[in-house]
Amino acid sequence: MKEIGNNFGFEKSYSPIDLRFSLDSFDLWYQKNQNEKIYLRSMGSGANWLYSHLTLFMALHKYFCSLGANSLIPPILFLDQPSQVYFPTSVDISDSFNPKELKKQENKEEKTDEDLNAVTNLFNQMIKFCKDTLSETGIEPQIIITDHADYLTLDNDIKFDSLVDGRRWRTKGFISEDKI
What we know:
- This protein is an alpha+beta fold.
- It has a domain at 46-166.
- The protein has helices at 2-5, 46-66, 99-105, 112-137, 160-164, and strands at 19-21, 28-31, 37-39, 76-80, 142-146.
- β1 (19-21) and β2 form a beta hairpin.
C-alpha cells in the first residue's frame, strides 16, 4: 500500500503515506507514528478518502493477481466517478467535459489546473498499476471506470480515446439502444 499510495496526491500531512489495513476489523488508517493511528474517517479531504480507498483496492487486487489461478477473486475493479472529488457531476450538464467551466460554476477557477492534474494523475496511476501488476504477476487487472472526466492528456503517449474506446455517456450512453 505504501508503494501505491505514494503515487497519489495525499495532503502533505500524510506524506510519506503509511496506510495500514486490518483484515480482522476492516479498519483502514494512516500510521502517523508508532503509537498514533489516524483512521480514514478523520483523514480530512475527499481526495484523501478517494486515494485511501484506491490504494487499498489496488493493493488487494495486486495480491489477488499474485495468487494466479489460486485466487477466487477476479481481477476486476469497478469505479464510479473517481474525479467527482475534484469536479462534482452535480454541476456538469454540458455536452463535453470542460474543467474550467465546472470550476467557474463552483467559484474555484484558480484550482482548475491543480485539480485537472490530480485527475490526470489518478488515471495515470491506474494505468501504471495495471501494467506493473501484469509485469510482476502475469495477470493484468481490469479497471472499469464510469466518469465524466474526458480527453485527458496521459503519460507515455497513451491516448485517452484508446481507453474509452468510443464509449462516451454524454452522446451514446453505457449501453447502446441498438444492443437492447
